[in-house]
Amino acid sequence: MTNVSLTDTVLVLVHGAWHSSGQWAATQRALAGAGAASVAVDLPGHGFDAPLPTGYLLPGQPGLLTERSRLAGLTMDDCAEAVLCVLRRVRHRRRVVLVAHSAGGGPASLAVERAPELVHRIVYLSAFVPGGRPRFSDYLGSSENATALGRNLHLGDARALGAVRINPLAPDPAYLDELRRTHYHDTPADRFDRWRSALSPDLPLAIPTAPVTLTAARWGSVPRTFLRCAEDRALAPAAQDLMIAEADRAFPGNPFTVRTLPGGHSPFAARPDELAAALVP
């Protein structure tokens, strides 16, 4: 990411499942200190405007396992449009770098496929790349991802709920320990409660299950970087490598630049300064 001054660059940051634009705050402060502008996206169904299951904040959380999500009707197109809306607002910048974390890779990829002229580079931070397989669930269920944690976090029947539902406010210490070990195992322990309390319980089912189709002339024309998380417990490094390899085979004319970061799935929580440095080398 050279040849253009940081003052001419804006980074558009897309969060992953159950997170929000707020996950990027510490990274954005570090980016600002380096002279880089940034704006964080809230995908539909995430952030302060996310509708919650009606019993989520009540004693005993009634209906949490069965109440259909109010996000059930959201589509991958809706999520990609949220990214495109921000990209259109910052198009006056000479250089736009789109950064996607985890499940945010699907909407970000579709946004680039729809409007490659708005993006100068896309960065995948341990994120879904639909270059080889069209659905995130195709990689989550792969043998390469067999060592990943977190499957016991999902509540109820996702198809009946219309969402992949978790319970960040669960009273069960064993459940919370798995949530910590999956997403925040290298984040300071005294910050875990703050991080988990900021999560939304519902991920629209379309994000992991809707197919994203890419073409060489559009998505494939945009330079891309993959930032591997070496100790990732939510998306195993072997699954990250599989996505990179399959995308490069499908789009050999513009292969990934690959870098490896230390630590787990959430470097924005564990080491935001290092993450910012990786985004603006």
UniProtKB/TrEMBL annotation:
GO MF terms, alphabetically ordered: hydrolase activity
InterPro entries in the record: AB_hydrolase_1, AB_hydrolase_fold, Sec-Metab_Biosynth_Hydrolase
Domain AB hydrolase-1 span(s) in chain numbering: 11-278
Keyword Metal-binding in record: no
Keyword vocabulary terms for this entry: Hydrolase
The protein, known as: Alpha/beta hydrolase
Organism field: Streptomyces doudnae
